[in-house]
Amino acid sequence: MNKLFRFYVDYGRGCELEGLFISTEEELNLLNNANIHFGEAFGKHSEASLDDFKWQECCTVVTDDQEKINWLIELLGYTLSGYNPEHYYEYYDSDEYKEGYDADLDDMDCEYELPGEIARWFKGKEDRRIYEFECREDIGEEDD
């Protein structure tokens, strides 16, 4: 069930990140213990990140009224304003990504049921396809 979440992290000295986004608790649970890297969110040389992310500590539910949430999705999409931690997740270390990357390129079966897991699994397969395509191109150029 989709919910409207408010994201807020205070880094001190007037630096804070906040946002409104729509997601499910199941999708946010996939981010627990992950590294979230926001880049230079406060200007040059100001890297902002969350190591060992726990969504319960920085995301609060604003509403779970499905009628309002569906209206917001139709109007604005899933990220309403500010930062959405789901967009900054470093997924390369996830088990689903590694499993997809290591999978047989002809095998399209995906055992996962949640959208985030499926997305990471397929992202791993896609990155492997790109890597192998680039390697084949490089090998072809060396042969010339």
Describe this entry's structure for a reader.
With about 140 residues, the chain is of the alpha+beta class. The chain has 2 domains: about 5-90, no CATH class; about 95-144, no CATH class. The chain has 5 helices and 6 strands. The strands form 2 sheets. Strands 5-1-2-6 form a 4-stranded antiparallel sheet. A two-stranded antiparallel ribbon has the order 3-4. Helix 4 (about 95-100) packs across helix 5. The longest helix has 29 residues, at about 115-144. The termini are far apart. The relative contact order is 0.17. The model has no long low-confidence stretch (mean pLDDT about 80).
Short key terms for the protein model shown above:
144 residues, 2 domains, two-stranded antiparallel ribbon
SSE diagram, text form:
Elements: E1 3-12, E2 15-23, H1 25-29, E3 36-39, E4 48-50, H2 55-58, E5 59-63, H3 66-76, E6 79-82, H4 95-102, H5 115-143
Helix pairs in contact: 4-5
Q: Structural class from helices and strands?
A: alpha+beta
Helix and strand succession?
A: EEHEEHEHEHH
Distance between the termini: 56 Å
In helices, the fraction of residues equals: 25-40%
Average pLDDT: 80
Q: Which blocks of ≥5 consecutive residues have pLDDT under 50? A: none
Strand content: 15-25%
**How are the strands of the biggest sheet laid out side by side?**
5-1-2-6
* Largest sheet descriptor: 4 strands, antiparallel
**What is the total tally of β strands?**
6
